[in-house]
Amino acid sequence: MPVGIFRVCLVVITAIVNHPLLFPKENGTVPENAEEIIQKMKEREESLRLEKLRLEQEIADQEAAQKALEKAAEVVEENKEEKVRWDMWTALSMVIFLLIELWRQDFQEGNWQDTGGEEDDMAVLGKAFKGVAFPDKAVLASFYEKRILATTGDMARMREMVEGFADDLLEALRSVCNRDADMEVEDCMGVGSMYENWRVRKPFVCDLIVPFAPPEPYCFRSQIWCSGDSFPPDEQGYGTIKVCRADEDVTGCICDKTKLGEDMLCLLHSQANTTRRSSEMEDLLCFKNTQYLDADQVMKWFQIAVTKAWNRISHKYEFDLSFSLLDSPGALKIKFKSGKSVAFNLTPVVQYENSDVYFISHFPRSGLAADLLSSTRWFLSFAVYERRFIQLVSKLLPANACHVSCLQILSFLHGKQCSLTGPSGLTNYHLKTVMLHLLQARPSQDWAPEKLEARLQDMLKFLEKCLHEKKLYHFFIGNWKVPAELGFPIIFQGAEPLNLFRPFVLRRDVYRKTVDTFHEMLRNMSALINEYTVHIPLAHTNGICKESL
């Protein structure tokens, strides 16, 4: 019973405590605040989720950046190691290159275009000679006597006739020229194979050069490729000639080098003076609007002057004179009434300073010739020094030395082969350059007449070596061994050696044709020589060798 009463009381108390009217103010807004709280909690949860995603993305980016930095560091480390290896190889390569270059320079200075001089040196070469039957001494001697000497006997008489006529023609040329305005022509000089006594191929052509100078008060000032001026590689061996007044400053006025403003005037040169100066330069055979001598203008002037001179003296001679070749402006031909003719070249040249080196207006072109250069570029000719060198060396050689004989035979063989298979890049000047190098390299006793066969083989093997290497250096340019007796200008001795075979490097078709022609000449050599050789008994071999040489 008491327990029941207690339970009833407990229920009543609980109902009173939980009645909604007991605490109306505290519990009246509970439902509305709950919804707001729930909404704010959802918004907070969403912002926390977005912040979490942002933080996770930043952490991922940082990890990726860290990995990239680590990878870059690894690549840099590998590059450093590789660079160290490459630097080592580069340094080693440079050392090897410098050693080779030093050896090459020593070789050029000590053995400049040297042939070795001994049979052991030649043994390395001569690959093209394998299987080639080389004529013996008796056959070569007979060939030289029957073919060379028999056809060159009239050269001296022809030279004398041409020189006499050329002197008369130039004297008449001086008389028809205006001494105050035209170029002053000097005496002619003979150069080339006809005057070095090794010309073998007909027709015989005399080469004469005619130095000329400008009228007073003008003078020539020359610039050459090795004097420090900028000349491209394909113009090595060329120069320019500037026509100046004798009292003119070499550096010239600043108005020639600087564009003056419209309101500025040079006190030395007015516009009228400039126009008159340009006209004077053209009258002095210069290229248009320049002071540089124009080779084409010079040849036109020279042809007109020669024509006038011939008209003045033609009545004295019983032959006709004409220009024979269009591509060689100085080529003249004398035609006799009998039908015979004599050809010669009369070429105007300009002297380089006080030497016997000459700027030549037009030079015979070969298969190696590239595109025509500007007409203000003049080729330098060393023909006078070449003739003097041959004359000087000949005095030191044994009697009847075989150096000229070797050159004549080689020139004949090459010319004969070219007539059969067409022209090649080799010229007679290349062959003469080979002989000049061997004359300097070998002792004088090696050129005795009985050594004709051995020296001819040397020339052929040396030429083969040069063709293989595509290098044949000009004999005088860069050669410190030129005899001092010649008085050769030192500026050319100190220049870089000039490779006459440089065009072979640029023109592979011409090089291939030249090598094929050379090898074909070697194979046909015996047949070409035997064609002009009378077979003789072996008992007379030695006697014929001595008599023919």
From TrEMBL:
<feature type="coiled-coil region">
    <location>
        <begin position="38"/>
        <end position="85"/>
    </location>
</feature>
<feature type="signal peptide">
    <location>
        <begin position="1"/>
        <end position="15"/>
    </location>
</feature>
<dbReference type="Pfam" id="PF20266">
    <property type="entry name" value="Mab-21_C"/>
</dbReference>
<keyword id="KW-1003">Cell membrane</keyword>
<keyword id="KW-1133">Transmembrane helix</keyword>
<feature type="domain" description="Mab-21-like HhH/H2TH-like">
    <location>
        <begin position="404"/>
        <end position="478"/>
    </location>
</feature>
<dbReference type="InterPro" id="IPR026250">
    <property type="entry name" value="ITPRIP-like"/>
</dbReference>
<keyword id="KW-0325">Glycoprotein</keyword>
<dbReference type="GO" id="GO:0004860">
    <property type="term" value="F:protein kinase inhibitor activity"/>
</dbReference>
<keyword id="KW-0812">Transmembrane</keyword>
<dbReference type="InterPro" id="IPR046906">
    <property type="entry name" value="Mab-21_HhH/H2TH-like"/>
</dbReference>
<dbReference type="GO" id="GO:0005640">
    <property type="term" value="C:nuclear outer membrane"/>
</dbReference>
<keyword id="KW-0175">Coiled coil</keyword>
<dbReference type="GO" id="GO:0005886">
    <property type="term" value="C:plasma membrane"/>
</dbReference>
<protein>
    <recommendedName>
        <fullName>Inositol 1,4,5-trisphosphate receptor-interacting protein</fullName>
    </recommendedName>
</protein>
<comment type="similarity">
    <text>Belongs to the ITPRIP family.</text>
</comment>
<dbReference type="InterPro" id="IPR024810">
    <property type="entry name" value="MAB21L/cGLR"/>
</dbReference>
<keyword id="KW-0732">Signal</keyword>
<keyword id="KW-0539">Nucleus</keyword>
<comment type="function">
    <text>Enhances Ca(2+)-mediated inhibition of inositol 1,4,5-triphosphate receptor (ITPR) Ca(2+) release.</text>
</comment>
<keyword id="KW-0472">Membrane</keyword>
